[in-house]
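Run log // design_07
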């Protein structure tokens, strides 16, 4: 079955960095675009970044553009989100998502606070 498992979240000070990882299994990872979303409790999910199946094209939310980089390693069935210059408003649960079939991971908490 399709599984997406996020890791790498944590508590970081403003201006700091985190690298989130998503381990995918149960499907042919290399043929699917992948996306990172985030959610603050009580608010809607926000698309953070997306990457095509071959990794050639990426897109970002305006709120993170220039601070975040989405990459993938199709040999390892992994997708990553490098987040730099973190701000308190980046605090959220971050989810890995495969649109085809609407599969979600369990999420990883990112907290940006001094």
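design_07 sequence
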């Amino acid at each position: 079955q399709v599984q997406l498992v996020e890791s790498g979240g944590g508590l970081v000070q403003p201006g700091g960095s985190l690298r989130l990882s998503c381990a995918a299994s149960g499907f042919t990872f290399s043929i699917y675009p992948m996306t990172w979303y985030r959610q603050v409790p009580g608010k809607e999910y926000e698309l953070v970044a997306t990457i095509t199946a071959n990794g050639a094209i990426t897109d970002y939310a305006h709120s993170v553009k220039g601070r975040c980089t989405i990459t993938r390693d199709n040999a390892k069935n992994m997708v990553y989100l490098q987040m730099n210059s973190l701000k308190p408003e980046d605090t959220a649960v971050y989810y890995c998502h495969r649109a085809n079939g609407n599969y979600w991971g369990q999420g990883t908490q990112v907290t940006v606070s001094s």
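The radius of gyration is 13 Å.
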